Amino acid sequence: MANLHFHYGTMGSSKSAELIITAYNFKRNGTSVAMVKPRCDNRFGDTKITSRIGISMDAISLKNLDEYRPAPGTSILLVDEVQFFAPSDIDHMVDIADNHGVIVMTYGLMVDSNEKIFPAARRLIEVGAKLHRMESNCQIPGCLCLATHHLRFDATGHVIRDGDQFAMGDTNYKSVCRRHFYEIYHGRSH
Ligand SMILES: [Zn+2]
Question: If you count Cβ atoms within 10 Å of the first and of the last residue's Cβ in the chain, which end, N or C, has fewer?
Answer without folding.
Answer: N
